[in-house]
Design brief:
The protein is mainly alpha-helical and 473 residues long. It is built from 21 helices and no strands. The protein has a domain at 434-473. 66% of the residues lie in helices and 0% in strands. Helix 8 (166-183) packs antiparallel against helix 10 (213-229) and helix 20 (436-448) packs antiparallel against helix 21.
């Protein structure tokens, strides 16, 4: 039984109407009726009128910084996206900037800086190369921008994901409209799931300013993850339309990792949304995943079938060649070839589509051991539950999944430092920090709890609201 959407303000109602418009906007872009400047205008209007200051700061960090960096050079406008985004964040957060930095955030920031220090040392030891300098600068920008974004998410409880995530979907749609306009190739129909990727490829061959089709899928993927993190069930038509729009954009992007990542996101949400692991829920989630995959096959999604609506075979382009990075690892297994020095001459790619392989190629087993030590130290000192929640009620695990999927399947190390930032901040703030002995006692109490004892155990080790518990004061 679907519930009615509750609107706290008139702006929430307008935001809901905007979400219901997104499928219409997608159809308009596919039919070449709605142009991308209209989508850009909607992004700024939703940003200005529908979000509070904390939500605006998150949008600036995660959307506007990418928006200026993506469309600026493509349109011949060289705007410093990071500078613009940070200036806006300082304006919106001028009263609350100091609240983000407290004793609760000191420890995860130390872990973040430890990871960055390892990469910086390898960069300094490598020396300036064609790719290393750019790679280090991008990593430095991502470090500041994403850290600010996640600090806001773990600090303030007035953030509503349905307001934050609308710009993500509109940003993805804007990219599709831009590529369609610049390439001159429109979709053959509403279910043409190959035109966007093919158009990007054609623009690249003609040396035209091009956007990465991955970015479109990732934007919609993050938007879906943020919205679903605040849902325990599909409550109303708003949720249905939002998820439908996000999934449609993800499939239209033609990016495999975001398609399978979204399916994995649904699985995790079904399993962890209640806070209690049940075998029946796992089977239900698996059935839903199989159903989604079969629907994609029936829709003849070329990314999964090896052909496209234009008749071009994409199977060879989709098969990742891991022979070259493995060969590099075999010759430079100890110290790697140097930070930013990876380059595959056969494909022209500067990253091996996997963060672990990239660390092994450029920093060797020594670098991987150092990074693993930091991650292991964090996990060992944080006995956190996967069902941790943000102050706003969002499930931390769902917000982390897009960054995990992107880092393990595609993307550069400099961009994927977000994987460590999101891990350390999301799972520290609401994690249960206990002594080992105390943790074992409480876990045993929960396992052996019966009838009246269950209430007492649930109060001591909460499953839904994991308040920070510190015993070593």
């Amino acid at each position: 039984m679907l519930e009615k959407m509750v609107y706290n303000t008139v702006w929430d109602k307008i935001n809901a109407y905007l979400v219901f418009m997104i499928p219409i906007l997608i159809i308009g872009v596919l039919l070449n009726i709605i142009k991308f400047p209209i989508i850009a205008m909607l992004i700024f209007l939703s940003f200005i009128f529908l979000c509070n200051n904390h939500e605006k700061s998150v949008v600036c960090a995660l959307v506007f910084c990418k928006l200026f960096g993506t469309f600026g050079p493509a349109l011949g406008i060289h705007l410093p996206g990071t500078v613009v985004a940070f200036t806006l964040i300082l304006i919106f957060m001028r009263k609350d900037l100091t609240k983000m930095f407290s004793k609760k955030t000191t420890k995860p920031i130390i872990f973040i800086l430890s990871i960055f220090f390892i990469f910086m040392v390898y960069y300094l030891l490598t020396g300036e190369t064609k790719n290393s300098g750019t790679k280090f600068n991008v990593m430095l920008i991502s470090l500041f921008v994403d850290t600010i974004a996640f600090l806001i998410l773990v600090t303030f409880n007035d953030i509503r994901m349905e307001r934050v995530t609308v710009p993500f979907l509109l940003f993805a749609l804007m990219q599709m409209g831009y590529v369609e306009a610049m390439s001159g190739h429109g979709a053959a129909g509403l279910l043409d799931f190959s035109f966007f990727r093919n158009a990007c490829t054609e623009m690249m061959k003609k040396n035209m300013p091009v956007l990465s089709y991955h970015n479109m899928g990732i934007a919609a993927f993050i938007g879906a993850a943020f919205m679903m993190s605040q849902r325990r069930k599909i409550n109303n038509y708003f949720d249905i339309v939002f998820l439908f729009s996000a999934f449609w954009l993800i499939v239209l992007s033609g990016a495999r990792q975001t398609i399978f990542g979204f399916i994995f996101l649904i699985f995790v949400w079904l399993v962890f949304r209640t806070g209690r692991f049940k075998l029946a829920t796992v089977f239900l989630a698996a059935a839903v995943i199989v159903g989604i995959y079969l629907c994609l096959q029936l829709l003849e999604v070329p990314i999964l079938q090896g052909n496209s609506s234009r008749g071009a075979h994409m199977g060879s382009e989709l098969n990742r060649n891991y022979d070259y990075p493995l060969m590099i690892i075999s010759y430079h297994f100890l110290d790697g070839i140097g930070f930013g020095n990876y380059h595959n001459p056969h494909t022209g790619e500067i990253y091996p589509h996997n963060i672990i392989l990239e660390i092994l190629c450029e920093m060797g087993f020594i670098g991987l051991i150092f990074v693993s030590m930091v991650v292991f130290a964090f996990v060992r000192s944080h006995h956190f539950l996967l069902r941790n929640e943000l102050p706003s009620g969002g499930i931390c695990l769902l917000l982390w999944i897009p960054y995990l999927i992107r880092s393990m399947i595609s993307g550069d190390l400099s961009d994927n430092i977000s994987l460590f930032i999101s891990m350390f901040l999301l799972f520290h703030y609401r994690g249960i920090v206990l002594s080992r002995k105390r943790l074992e006692q409480l876990m045993k109490l929960r396992q052996n709890a019966k009838s009246g004892y269950w209430k007492k155990a649930a109060e001591e080790v909460p499953a839904a609201n994991n308040d920070l518990i510190e015993t070593n004061k």
